[in-house]
Design a protein that fits this description.
With 222 residues, the chain is α+β, with helices and mostly antiparallel strands. Helices cover 29% and strands 28% of the residues. The protein has an 8-stranded mixed sheet, covered by helices on one side. The longest helix has 18 residues, at 37-54.
């Protein structure tokens, strides 16, 4: 592992052996099946106390009947050693409360914009949505500073006119869940366009030809 300011790579995070957590799109994700709202509230309160002690604060989503957590070092825009350290503590707290993790249920959604001019196009979407530039990919990606809405990134393509598809969903799931998600989409009328870059991503299309990608952290270039 590295220091508290260095962004860790996916292989480095994978070596940490965080059984309850999954690295998706530059952050650690976990979901804990609390079973009821009251237990979720207790878990959230315990996580809050641990976060204050560590001076490192996760994004929490308390719902009935689960608590979803996203861990990232906001000051550097990626996972640092602070995140696995707090992730282990959160897992310990959940175990003390008898709450099981549900790693198969985590996922992340990004919006990909196919464009031949990302430099000219991204500023419009940044201004329209009130987003900010990514600290890791400042010329390719914009982020919701509040962490509520999906990341938008650009994929280089030749300049083209409408109605060619410009937007596509990137659904990011743990590797072990990718095939089930693909099979479900195919059974629902989709087609497999390409698996050339699997397991980084598979390209699928709906019955009208609109494309989307099922992505995993494995085999990625960045």
């Amino acid at each position: 592992m590295s220091d508290d300011k260095t962004v860790l790579t996916y292989p480095q995070v994978k070596e940490a052996g965080l059984a309850d957590w999954r690295w998706l799109v530059g952050a650690l994700y976990a979901r804990f099946a609390t079973g009821d709202f009251a237990t979720g509230l207790v878990l959230a309160e315990r996580i809050g106390a641990a976060a204050e002690e560590a001076d490192h604060h996760p994004d929490l989503d308390l719902r009935y009947p689960h608590v979803a957590i996203r861990l990232v070092s906001h000051d550097v825009g990626g996972v640092t050693e602070r995140d696995p350290r707090l992730a282990r503590r959160i897992s310990e707290i959940a175990a003390e409360l008898g709450v099981d993790a549900a790693p198969a249920e985590v996922q992340a959604l990004e919006l990909g914009l196919d464009t031949g001019d990302h430099v000219g196009t991204l500023p419009f979407w940044r201004a329209l949505l009130g987003y900010a530039d990514s600290s890791v990919y400042p010329t390719r990606e914009i982020l919701d500073p509040n962490g509520h809405l999906p990341t938008i990134w650009t994929q280089r393509t030749e300049a083209h006119e409408t109605p060619r598809q410009r937007w596509h969903f990137d659904v990011v799931v743990p590797l072990g869940q990718a095939q089930a998600r693909i099979d479900a989409a195919l059974a629902a009328g989709g087609t497999l366009v390409s698996d050339e870059r699997a397991p980084a991503y598979w390209v699928l299309a709906d019955p009208e030809g609109n494309k989307a990608c099922v992505c995993t952290p494995e085999g990625r270039d960045d």
